[in-house]
Specification:
The chain has about 350 residues and is an alpha/beta fold. Helices cover about 45% and strands about 15% of the residues. It has helices at about 15-30, 40-45, 65-75, 90-100, 115-125, 135-145, 170-175, 195-210, 225-235, 250-255, 270-280, 290-295, 310-320, 325-340, 345-359; strands spanning about 1-5, 30-40, 50-55, 80-85, 105-110, 130, 150-155, 185-190, 215-220, 240-245, 260, 285, 300-305. The chain has a 7-stranded parallel β-sheet with strand order 3-2-1-4-5-6-7, with helices on both faces. A 6-stranded parallel β-sheet has the order 10-9-8-11-12-13, sandwiched between helices. α9 links the parallel β9 (about 215-220) and β10. About 45% of the residues are buried.
């Protein structure tokens, strides 16, 4: 099968990483991948061994000229199927082009951001199938009026064995500037408001009183970086909270963490949570979107109401005080990832949807 994939993300995490997993799995099964992605993106380089890469300018929702660029490529390459993996204009303009070319088209929805019913009715009319990466997202789409017969659910995957490397914990901590005896929390998310970093900052003063050796690292990048640094400085937290930026070596870094905290207000599923569970790290997260599918309350972590600083503080305090519970949650998380979030299952789930439209 010849599939044209469109992914607008520039960095190799989240959705773009899922696309790479899928491309590898499809290539191993004998399918021919064509990939449209931004010029100079990390995905373009990583996917080169398993896909015919076509770098294109993808400038987002206002980039109407994307239609012409995609049209010319589809006419030249003649794919049997178009799979749109991201928004940023690709979902709409890619759907228009595939429709004009008479090629079946699939859109993968990775976020649980609500959309007005009129937009759902218009946009998803362009797509033959819509794949939700979690039950949480699927429920949002159904509630917004997407016809159930058009919807499929294929969970995101994690390379759980790769994300559980044998690393020297003390050496990793030394690289991060964290003492070996510190309790280390990590937040792995874009620095944007809906990820909820501010709730953890609000909970920290009381946590530090109970755990004076506590350290926090915010891994990620985004528009909120300067504002978060201002909040950290204003609260006098610079000595224990650092913005650590985007790290390509996240699999190794995870082994140095005691707990991953994810206080998001919205989340489709949370690939970073899958990676943390794969590395055997317990998780405290908000009960929103698809998070309860990745973090099972009482099994591999603790779920708290979104935006509830007190509940977040209490959950972190209890878990930091119970090393045996942290170990149990970590082992359970690895078992959960191996059981329900394998790459093979994700690839086969997508192939099943492809076959609906091409056979």
């Amino acid at each position: 099968m010849k599939i044209l994939h469109v992914e607008a993300g520039r960095h190799l995490y989240g959705g773009a990483l899922q696309v790479l997993y899928l491309l590898r799995g499809l290539a191993a099964r004998g399918h021919h991948n064509l990939l449209v992605c931004p010029r100079g993106s990390a995905l373009a380089e990583a996917a080169a061994p398993v896909a015919e890469v076509h770098p294109l300018a993808l400038h987002g929702d206002a980039d109407v000229l994307m239609i012409g660029r995609l049209w010319r490529l589809i006419r030249a390459t003649q794919p049997e199927l178009v799979h749109l993996h991201s928004r940023r204009g690709a979902d709409v303009f890619g759907g228009v082009v595939a429709r004009l070319a008479g090629v079946p088209v699939i859109h993968t929805r990775r976020v649980d951001n609500p959309e007005p019913r009129w937009r759902v009715a218009l946009k998803y009319r362009l797509h033959d199938r819509v794949i939700a990466i979690s039950e949480g997202i699927a429920n949002v789409l159904i509630a917004e009026g997407l016809p159930a017969e058009k919807l499929r659910m294929v969970r995101s995957a994690v390379d759980w064995q790769q994300d559980a490397p044998a690393c020297n914990r003390n050496a990793i901590r030394a690289q991060l500037g964290v003492p070996n005896d510190a309790l280390l929390l990590g937040v792995i998310a874009q620095l944007i408001p809906r990820k909820g970093h501010r709730f953890l900052l609000a909970a920290l003063p009381e946590l530090l009183a109970a755990h004076p050796n506590l350290q926090v690292k915010f891994f990620g990048q985004g528009a909120l970086a300067q504002e978060l640094q201002r909040q950290i400085d204003a609260a006098g937290l610079r000595e224990c909270v650092q913005l650590a930026g985007f790290r390509a070596d996240l699999a190794e870094i995870l082994t140095a963490l005691d707990v991953v905290v994810h206080p998001a207000l919205m989340e489709g599923l949370g690939v970073s949570l899958l990676q943390a569970a794969s590395a055997g790290v317990p998780i405290i997260a908000s009960r929103v979107g698809g998070i309860p599918e990745a973090v099972r309350d009482g099994e591999n972590g603790v779920l708290v109401p979104p935006g509830d600083v007190g509940a977040l503080r209490d959950a972190i305090h209890a878990l930091l005080a119970d090393s045996a519970q942290r170990q149990r949650f970590g082992a359970n998380g690895q078992a959960l990832m191996a059981r329900e979030f394998s790459i093979d299952a994700m690839v086969e789930g997508n192939v099943a949807v492809y076959q609906e439209l091409t056979t």
